[in-house]
Amino acid sequence: MIDRAAMHLERLVGFNTVSHLSNAELIHYAADHLREFGVEAALFPDPSGGKLGMHATIGPMVEGGVVLSGHSDVVPVEGQNWTSDPFKLTERDGRLYGRGAVDMKGFLAACLAMAPEMSRANLKRPIHLVMSYDEETTCRGVLPVIDDMVRRLPRIGAVIVGEPTSMQLVTAHKGAYGYKVTVTGKPAHSSLADQGVSAVAIASRLVVWLDDRLRRNRTGAADGRFQPNYTTCHAGTIQGGTACNILAGECSFEWDLRNLPDDDPEAFLREFLSHSDELVAEANRMVGGCGLRWEEDYAVPGLRPEEDGAAEALCRRLTGANDVATVSFSSEAGFFQSAGLSTVLLGPGSIEQAHIADEFIEISQLAACGDFLDRLIQAQAA
Description:
Elements: H1 2-14, H2 24-35, E1 41-45, E2 52-58, E3 65-71, E4 90-92, E5 95-97, H3 101-113, H4 115-120, E6 127-132, H5 143-152, E7 156-161, E8 170-173, E9 176-184, E10 188-189, H6 199-219, E11 232-240, E12 246-247, E13 250-258, H7 265-286, E14 291-300, H8 310-319, E15 325-327, H9 333-338, E16 343-345, E17 360-362, H10 363-381
Parallel strand pairs: 3-6, 3-7, 7-16, 8-15
Antiparallel strand pairs: 1-2, 2-6, 4-5, 5-17, 9-13, 9-14, 10-12, 11-13
Helix pairs in contact: 1-3, 3-10, 6-7
């Protein structure tokens, strides 16, 4: 299995699937491999036709199937100091290096490597394989796949999203929401400041509000399983103005919210927008003509622990795990859960190796994933 997984991982890493590029070659490679075992994949193009999602079913079309899901896109390598070609898998000291090796082409490679065993196992309940796009940007590339599976497939029993968790069972993660805000002021010569309003000033006050809110959340945080155990927010970029001696007519910034699963992101957004309205109204009382517009860039729901969750029970049985973990990063798991599917995270490799130069996955982690998949196959065949 290790040799087959490494072979598939070499091919998958070789496809440059940075999120702004096409992943079609990778998806066709996976679909062609599954076709060798009589499995036909359903493909779902994005509006441009350049990106594809897919799901494929191995085994009978009956209830109780288990979904193994992973994303095919990766983050960029520009500005990173790699010691080897990021799009050529390189083995060193028990590790396999390459962009996406751990996040999360390693999991996909393990699933493809175990496809022969899945097809020969006389499964009583199916295993569904899912591959998506745009997880590293909006996570929305998986939505057409989920919609089709929920609509057309027999009731699914559990979803395992193979994000790198070092093969630990994860039952909760934070949500992730991104917003773009553009403030309109009234330009004026800086010597006539009473005749204008700086959009940079309004935007800056909003950025400070976010930082103050972060500090308040940190101060009031209770002990818990998340790190950090509170909802975070911050402005990641800001730009505006035309010259030092002109009150800025426009200023834009982007901000990010990472909420605990039990914290309502919509309530936080309403609070932010209420404060924004107050600042704009204050500016308009002085000179008029000021405004603010915003748009949602991404919205990824958190993953909540499930009471008597089928996915958790299955993974506990297969791994022997007594404890569960939480992670602060977001994933597509929240979308599966929001669609009514019992969902957990469990996959090979460490998230600490993701997104960095010389990203790698340990071969031992691929082996551990193969062992887990073998036990899953036996469970679905029983």
